[in-house]
Amino acid sequence: MASSASENRLLLSKIATNEKHGENSPYFDGWNKYNQNPFHLTENPEGVIQMGLAENQLSFDLVEERIRKNPKASICTAEGIEKFRNVANFQDYHGLPEFRQAIATFMSKARGGRVTFDPHRVVMSGGATGANELVMFCLADRGDAFLIPSPYYPAFYRDLGWRTGVQIVPVDCDSSNNFKITKEALEAAYEKAQNNNINVKGLIITNPSNPLGTTLDKDTLESLVTFINQKNIHLVCDEIYAATVFSSPKFTCITEVIQNMNCNPNLIHIVYSLAKDMGFPGLRVGIVYSYNDDVVNIGRKMSSSGLVSSQTQHMLASMLSDEDFVEKFLTTSAKRLAKRHGVFTDGLEEVGINCLKSNAGLFCWMDLRRLLKDQTFDGEMVLWRVIVNEVKLNVSPGSSFKCVEPGWFRVCFANMDDDTVEVALKRIRAFVGQGKKAQEQVQVKSPKKRWQSNLRLSFSSSSRRFEQEGVSVMSPRMMSPHSPMPHSPLLRATT
Ligand SMILES: Cc1ncc(COP(=O)(O)O)c(C=O)c1O
């Protein structure tokens, strides 16, 4: 007897079938746009360029060179196969001792060598995604909340809350002070949660920030530590972008701050991963590093559901303990990121587009407020739809990061080659240039390039034209891919 899809869904758990995965967002919709028509320099030059994926692809050549020169580091080569049995059989959730040592040393180097980490506190998980969920599992009960300064990583809803039932309470930050996290904003969010009978268990920060590409200064970090100490709540620091800092000011990590402060270390937890700093999101190396012994012990037991494969641990233990390689990689990667960031932001400036001044990350926080027809989130969606559908660039709108001001967009620049960057810049220049021209000559219309005529409207005061061309305004919810897709972003769960 055939049953309907909705009947079948009723047989599943409420937690799995609720909407708390947070994927009903233009952030994920943009990935689908790319998957449906991916740009290729020669095979699909009119396709969508993926600028919504925070991948670091600029220094793979160095990694490949090291792998080639060290065949013994892999258990899948003639030179390394003698270790195959031991490694393939290894499943201790404490991890290979040499891996824990190597990652602890690497974490120190990624923070400029100014702090050290104890390998015994390293707990493994499936990427920072798994690490963030694991920390929530240890610290909060269903219905409890964590404060998160906005704008923040869109997948936090899924990672932190979907399975654990933990709520997110945004701490509103805005461009008036370059999105600084102030004591007033923290207190306001905390108080609001309390007034709504929400039990706040902690604060999560991403430092360097995704999507801002900025680092928190020492004073701000100290004030955050003071805040969580006074409230006796936890501080989780997602430092996944630690080694992407490419220009001054230098990165100040939480470890550096707490070692000179009088605070309760049991409240401090770091989340880390090799997805961004090394460019290995596919290897699923996530780390929880907690100063709380109970969190280390409980987290380790829980981590058996998301261990890093022993083959990966084995390979990375060798690579990350190679001091010369790590030194060269970190320096070169930072230089290349700085260069790419410069090329990209200079290219934008040529057409009068500014980005928030940044010194880290794999993206820019682009200010397109002046291109909005209306200074509203609907206005932001109108512009986003033109950019993704007509200009064919998948950038991510600020609303998906819970930015409180419409008109900001995150644009990733390190997941492509130089030629693709040039094509992207060319499209942006043409888009903005054409918009300016159209603003001056409202009647001019080019029949060949449909997006150029649409662009005119993003500057105009009327939305009628969008409706005529079928480019209607849709809210993020309406645009979601709720049905199973062959290219679900879940299958490419990176960002
Ligand atoms: C702030 C932040 N945390 C966590 C993650 C997830 O990282 P991973 O691929 O290691 O699971 C990302 C990925 O973009 C991120 O930006």
TrEMBL record:
Its EC number is 4.4.1.14. It is an enzyme of class 4 (lyase). One of its GO terms (biological process) is ethylene biosynthetic process. The keyword S-adenosyl-L-methionine applies. It catalyses: S-adenosyl-L-methionine = 1-aminocyclopropane-1-carboxylate + S-methyl-5'-thioadenosine + H(+). The keyword Repressor does not apply. Residues 471-482 have a biased composition (Low complexity). Residues 49-428 form the Aminotransferase class I/classII large domain. SUPFAM superfamilies: PLP-dependent transferases. Pathway: Alkene biosynthesis; ethylene biosynthesis via S-adenosyl-L-methionine; ethylene from S-adenosyl-L-methionine: step 1/2. It holds the Pfam family Aminotran_1_2. GO terms for molecular function: 1-aminocyclopropane-1-carboxylate synthase activity; pyridoxal phosphate binding; transaminase activity. Belongs to the class-I pyridoxal-phosphate-dependent aminotransferase family. Homodimer. This is 1-aminocyclopropane-1-carboxylate synthase. It comes from Pyrus x bretschneideri. The lineage of its organism: Eukaryota, Viridiplantae, Streptophyta, Embryophyta, Tracheophyta. The gene is PbACS2.
